[in-house]
Structure formats: structure tokens, C-alpha cells
Automatic annotation (TrEMBL):
<dbReference type="InterPro" id="IPR002575">
    <property type="entry name" value="Aminoglycoside_PTrfase"/>
</dbReference>
<feature type="domain" description="Maltokinase N-terminal cap">
    <location>
        <begin position="11"/>
        <end position="102"/>
    </location>
</feature>
<dbReference type="GO" id="GO:0005978">
    <property type="term" value="P:glycogen biosynthetic process"/>
</dbReference>
<keyword id="KW-0067">ATP-binding</keyword>
<keyword id="KW-0418">Kinase</keyword>
<dbReference type="GO" id="GO:0016301">
    <property type="term" value="F:kinase activity"/>
</dbReference>
<keyword id="KW-0547">Nucleotide-binding</keyword>
<feature type="domain" description="Aminoglycoside phosphotransferase">
    <location>
        <begin position="247"/>
        <end position="372"/>
    </location>
</feature>
<dbReference type="Pfam" id="PF18085">
    <property type="entry name" value="Mak_N_cap"/>
</dbReference>
<comment type="pathway">
    <text>Glycan biosynthesis; glycogen biosynthesis.</text>
</comment>
<protein>
    <recommendedName>
        <fullName>Maltokinase</fullName>
        <ecNumber>2.7.1.175</ecNumber>
    </recommendedName>
</protein>
<keyword id="KW-0808">Transferase</keyword>
<keyword id="KW-0320">Glycogen biosynthesis</keyword>
<dbReference type="Pfam" id="PF01636">
    <property type="entry name" value="APH"/>
</dbReference>
<keyword id="KW-0321">Glycogen metabolism</keyword>
<keyword id="KW-0119">Carbohydrate metabolism</keyword>
<dbReference type="InterPro" id="IPR011009">
    <property type="entry name" value="Kinase-like_dom_sf"/>
</dbReference>
Amino acid sequence: MSQLEELLAVWLPRQRWFSGKGIPIRQIRVESRHTLVSAGPEGPDLHVLVIQAGQRGLSSRYQLLLGSRPPRSLPPDLARVAIGVCQVSGGRPKVIYDAAHDAQLTGLLLERFTAPTGAEPSGRVRFRTLPGGRIRVGSTGRILTGEQSNTSLVYGEDYVLKTFRRLWPGTNPDLELNMALSGSPYVARPCGWIEADLAGHSTPTTLAMLQTYIPQATDGWVLATADVRALLEGSGSGHEPGFTGEAAQLGRTTAEVHRSLARALPTDVLTPAGAAEMADAMVERLAMASAEVPELAEHAPRVMEAYADFSEVDEPLPIQRIHGDYHLGQVIRTTPGWVVLDFEGEPTVPVRDRQRLSSPLRDVAGMLRSFDYAAGYLLVGHPGEAGLEWAARSWARHNREAFCRGYADGGGADPEKHLTVLRAFEFDKAVYEVLYEARNRPNWLRVPLESIATAAAAPPVPG
Ligand SMILES: Nc1ncnc2c1ncn2[C@@H]1O[C@H](COP(=O)(O)OP(=O)(O)O)[C@@H](O)[C@H]1O
Ligand SMILES: [Mg+2]
């Protein structure tokens, strides 16, 4: 490995967006490198790097935005994001650092959207804007904090530039679906994107998406958990849960978004073979999770029954493009209503798999699981407090009912009439969560495990 690659091998595992945590990095290979901004001999340069990180024989592609400056001209506030000193693109060694923290570079990066196309010498990285959309420049990017799998920069109150960290060849579904939904009041309008030609791939790969920033919005997870907290603190004093109206509206918005996606993009009906394939994937995941988490194994037979029921459903199941990673952290509440973000799907899954049509009830199941999480989250530190558990469970039940009612009112397939399908999808999502929590946050494991235990104890759906 080159000096740069050696430095990156140490730096990469510490980044929150790195999805291969806990597995040693055997190799880093810089696949391509482009200088997007160059502010003179002493000034900073901005480089976009596409790298391959090799772990356990598997290789994953990531995008890095690195700044470089002569070592003595690194401002003190950037010293804490320094990666090391090395040669970046020939010439004198420079200090390289995480460019997302450099206001000068993020400002210049936004300006690149207004430069004539092809300004990057190789032409292999392109900044695209939508016809008629003029990009307002002059602001600098501020990094969004919080639970994220990518890195997003907010420019004033104008834009969010989301740089995709894990790269797969082709158009990122976040861009594809937001473009298809452009004009909908329920999404943040896309304004442009950055794309690159990856070696050996004929279609461009999305590096970043520029989207309208929605100011003064509240994250759905924050809103929901604040409501659970208020309920639990007032537990026993007759506190009325306040989120159910929001949940119903979120259900309607979700149905509207699904309907728009179905109008704009291909739809189909799931064939029996397709249903069997879906059920097989669920069974496989269950087997893997049961092997890793013994507490799950005792519920596995009931979960298997739910999957068998799913594969035998004889009503035609409509399929279409869906959100793919739907939960309370992916929706924000603005004054007029809910806005849905992050149509990327699961970033660790290859894009071609995420583009497959699926049942919109998968997204419904995702959100229903999220209500369980919001309810269970505050109990993580209070195991065995029966009163609190009862209150939290009834919060989740009221909100799931409200969401489903809203979804049906908004023109979506009535979840109450598709309980067999929903039950299988909810189990599958919870099994995924069991695996995730066992590997990453063991003290949260009880949240999905208890949901599975409760649902497994409930009688299967009639009919
Ligand atoms: N257009 C936007 N307007 C306002 N806030 C946004 C916007 N896009 C993203 N955010 C905020 O950033 C967070 C992360 O964005 P998201 O697209 O979900 O990225 P990630 O893929 O990293 O999860 C969101 O939960 C939201 O709080
Ligand atoms: Mg997200």
C-alpha cells in the first residue's frame, strides 16, 4: 500500500459511516482520485477519492472527500480532523484531512455546481443541475450530526449536499426516487448531483445529491420518543398520548408517496415464484440470526409458520419501488406536514438488489417496527418495570393503529386486510434487528426480541 493508503487504513475504521466495523482492514486501494477544487499553491485542495477497502476477502467501495494543504498552513481547527502527511498527487508532501470540516472547501465545492460542465480536467466527475434550477452559492457547508450512514452538509437554509459513502456502480436510488417524486410536497426537492465514471462501468455512479434544505423541521424519532417520555413520566396520571394524530398523518403521507412512486416508476404483481423467493430469503435470515442469538431460536417455529403462511397467500400482491429503509428517523415534521427523506434503501446492499420491486407493505412494516423501537427505547435502562412496559406497549399499539388507518385513508392497501403479509414482513424486519443489535448494541437486543416473543405468542392471522 502507498503511504496514503496506509494512513487511510488507520483512519477509515474510526469513521461513523464505515460499515465494516470490527473486521480488520487488510488492504486499501485508491481506485480513482480527482482534484475538484484547487485554491492556489498555499491554499487548500479538495480531492474526491474512490477507494476499495479489503476485509476478509471482500472488497467494499467508499467515497472520501479529502482536503490537502502544506503542513504549516493547516488552521488549528482543522488539526483535529487531520489524517496525516503524505504526497497526494505528486509534488511536495501535504497534510491531508477530512474536507467536510473545511468551510472554505465546502463553499468552493458548492460553487462547482455553477462552473461550466467538464471543468474537472479529466471530465470523469461531473456536477449536474436540473434545467432552469440556478444554484445559490456563497454559503459554506455545515456537517449534519446524528445517526447517519452518509455525510450531509447543510448550506445556510438553502441546500443539503449528501455525499454517499458506500458506493455501488450506477445511480443511487436516493437520487433516482427523489427525481421520480420531484414536485411532490412530501419530499425535499432535488436540485442537482455529482456523478463519476468508475473504472470498468459504463453508467455513471452518483457521488452526491444536492437537495433543498427543509428548515425548522423535527425528526420523527425525536418527536415520537419525546411523546413516549412524556407518557412514561406521567404514567398512571391519565396522560393522553399526543403522537397518534401525527402517526395517522404520517400514514397518509406514506400512502401518497407510495402512490406517486407507483405512478412514476414500474409496477408489477408478485408471482408465486417471487413470493417463494422472498419467503426463502426470510427463512435464511431467521436461520442465521437463530444461530447467532439462541434466545431467538425458541420463537423460530412460530416465525417459520408466518413465513409459510406468507408464501401461500393467494391474493395477488402488487409490487413497486419502495423506500426500503423506512423508519421514524427517515421522516421529518414540518409545519405543513411530514416529509420523507433518504430513499437510498440499505446502503450495504448492492444497488441492483435495492432496485427490485417489492411490496409497499414492507415500508409499512418498517415504520410499525419503528413505533415499537420508540416505545422500547426508553425502557432499555428500566428492565422489568411492568407499569412502564404496559404504558409503552399501549403507546406502540395506538400509534400503529393510527398509522395503518392513515395509510388506508391515504389510498394505500389497507394493512388490516393484509395481516399475513404484514406479519411476515414485521418478523423479517425484527429478525434483521436482532442480528444488528446482537452485533452492535447488545443492551438493545431485548427490544426486537420482546416484539418477536409477543407477536409469536399471538394467534396467527385468521384466514
Ligand atoms: N433536505 C433536508 N432538509 C432538512 N433536513 C435534512 C434534509 N436531508 C437530511 N436531513 C437531516 O439529515 C438526516 C440524515 O439524512 P439522510 O438522508 O437520512 O442521510 P443518511 O443516509 O446518512 O441517513 C435526516 O434524518 C434529517 O434530520
Ligand atoms: Mg437516513
